[in-house]
Amino acid sequence: MTDRTANPALPAGDPTPVAPVKDRNQWWDVWDQFRSHKGAMAGLIFLLGITLFCLIGPWLWGLDPAKLDIRNKDLRPIINALWGAENVSWAHPFGTDNLGRDIMAQTMQGGRISLAVGWTAMILAILIGTFVGVIAGYFPRLDGVLMRLTDLFLALPLLPLLLVMMLLFRDPLRAAFGPEQGIFILIVIGIGITSWMQTARIVRGDVLALKEREYVLAARSIGTPSRRVITRHLLPNVLSPIMVSATLGLATAIITESAISFLGLGFPPDYPTWGKLLADAVPRMVSFPERVVWPGLAISLTVLAVNYIGDGLRDALDPRIRGL
Amino acid sequence: MMLDDNSPLVRIRDLQMHFPIYSGLFRRQTGAVKAVDGVSFDIQRGETLGLVGESGCGKSTCGRAVLRLYDITGGSVEIDGVEISQTSQSDLRAMRPTMQMVFQDPQASLNPRMTVEAIIREPLDEHTSMSRDEKAAKVAELMDAVGLNRAFAKRYPHAFSGGQRQRIGIARALALNPKFIVCDEPIAALDVSIQAQVVNLLEDLQEQFGLTYLFISHDLSMVRHIANRIAVMYLGKVVELAPRGPLYDVPLHPYTRALLSAVPEPDPSKAQTRQRVVLQGDVPSPANPPQGCNFCTRCPAVMDVCKRIDPTFQEVEPGRFVACHLYENHASETEKAEAHANQQGS
């Protein structure tokens, strides 16, 4: 690629025409770049796997996670058969808990809840955070108000707030949406509105810097209205920090949900989530370490997978890294 | 709004752009940076007005204020017969296609996440109701006009050289068939061979589309090449405005003389004999300009009156404007003589 020296204003006189690039959807380039990131691919495969495991698993496995089977209580995972453990059964490959409930079925059922809570709360938090951050960064007049609001939320202690929310809204929501659905909405909203502040601050900082860039001035000189300056020029360029806080947000949401469940404020006691499985298993962790390991592994691997996917997506969406 | 062709396309009168300074505990306004402080000029249709001056004198601010990218402090801006100095930004949107801008840094003025096609198409998206195909055809046409290979439409700005990026910026400015383009140091970030290409491209486009330019630069030789008339700015004010030939041959204002004497002379024999006017000191802060003439702190021909009274910007010869007490009638002959003597001595 060289600048042409001879009479640049003449049309279409390029002596070495480049073969026209075939009109390929740009998302294929994004996918190609994403595929080249090994961690992101591994993360994506794992995340798809665990999502399918949780969604289709209970249907295939068929065991009710809440069914008590006292005779088969405290079974060890099937892998223990390798070193000659007696109390194992192929009927319960992950083992059973102290009431004889199948741990695999519980992990599947718990994963459904934890993933749903994690994703929904994260998306809610990112939406609020990005909205507040962009508005605060772009409109100086609203900056003070919105950032003080952010500080206010940061200063709120999360658990007492959730406790009050539970007390105030649990019964009306349960009445309106049913016991599980009501608690789900409550927890998602609770986590969502208490974890958007970091995103808002990061996005505001980036928008403050980006809006002084010349291409934003260029857009204004074209006459692009503010809302389209934001969607066309600012949002794509703050995508990286948003992506990072989204991946972290998913992890935080899953963990916060476990903390709430642990405190007994979350879902009903017979309703498994990864966090609650973990919490239930802690007292007998020394005798039955696998009961902590299964949900713990599921939480940390999911979070890791999402982090890698976020990393890969961020690279894939950046044309400079994509090398186009 | 058809006006006869003799009327100037752009009429600037007493343009002021002050940026407030807030300080203290209560963030009260304690002063203002007078980036542009009372600038007046006309630009005729099809003409190129060069705007020169040293760094920080308010050239770029002036260019942006003319396009109303800022909310100006005062004065009047009339483009194509329409007064826009107080128009709200939303009402200005309809005027935007008439006036466009080419930016200094071609790297920073292109969104790294948009393809070249999307960048050039943005004005079309905003102001026309063309179909997708029509827009693509128009973009390809514009890329031809600025000498970019249309096969590169799907690439991103970082894949282009500085000169090519500036062409993308120019294509974007041309997309809406503007009448008036502010070129804000379009060549300052380019190397010399590319500078010539871009300037030639701008000249060709001017001929082709009948454009009017406000060409902001600190490169005096380039301005001499492209501009018909030249305005010299110092500390937020135009000190001299004259057609190209007379300005370079007989600069009137002491600042213009100093500026021109800093241009390297290619002929070695002439270079040896010529006298350089080297200015002492620094440019005063535009937040706290000196009393009287802005240039009085550094002027080699300074007189007493300069420190008291701000000179008026007046026409001294047909088409030549200058703001200097040396050319004002009330300056006494003795003072003038004294000043000349001082200048010779320095």
- Give the low-pLDDT segments of chain A: 1-16
- Mean of pLDDT of chain B: 85
Radius of gyration of CA atoms of chain B, rounded to a whole number = 22 Å
- Global outline of chain A: globular
Cα separation of the termini of chain A: 13 Å
Shape of chain B: globular
Tally of individual helices of chain A = 13
Write down the secondary-structure element order of chain A. Answer: HHHHHHHHHHHHH
Strand content of chain A: under 5%
Could you give a short description of this structure?
The complex is a heterodimer of chains A (324) and B (346). Chain A is mainly alpha-helical and 324 residues long.
Report what the structure shows.
The complex is a heterodimer of chains A (324) and B (346). Chain A is mostly helical and 324 residues long. Chain A contains 13 helices and no strands. Chain A is globular. Residues 1-16 of chain A have low confidence and may be disordered. The model of chain B has no long low-confidence stretch (mean pLDDT 85). The longest helix of chain B has 18 residues, at 192-209. Helix content of chain B is 32%, strand content 22%. An eight-stranded mixed sheet of chain B has the order 6-7-8-3-9-10-12-11, with helices on both faces. Chain B is α/β, with parallel strands linked by helices and 346 residues long. In chain B, helix 4 crosses helix 5 and helix 5 (162-174) runs parallel beside helix 6 (192-209). At the A-B interface, helix 8 and helix 9 of A face helix 3, helix 4, helix 5 and helix 6 of B.
Please give the structural blueprint.
The complex is a heterodimer of chains A (324) and B (346).
Chain A: H1 26-35, H2 38-61, H3 103-138, H4 140-155, H5 158-177, H6 179-194, H7 197-210, H8 214-222, H9 226-237, H10 239-262, H11 274-281, H12 290-317, H13 319-322
Helix pairs in contact in A: 1-12, 2-3, 2-12, 3-4, 3-6, 3-7, 3-10, 3-11, 5-6, 6-10, 7-10, 8-9, 10-11, 10-12, 11-12
Chain B: E1 10-23, E2 28-43, E3 48-52, H1 59-66, E4 74-79, E5 82-83, H2 89-92, E6 99-102, H3 116-127, H4 132-145, H5 162-174, E7 180-184, H6 192-209, E8 212-216, H7 220-226, E9 229-234, E10 237-243, H8 244-249, H9 254-261, H10 268-273, E11 314-317, E12 320-322, H11 333-345
Parallel strand pairs in B: 3-8, 3-9, 6-7, 7-8
Antiparallel strand pairs in B: 1-2, 1-4, 4-5, 9-10, 10-12, 11-12
Helix pairs in contact in B: 3-4, 3-5, 4-5, 5-6
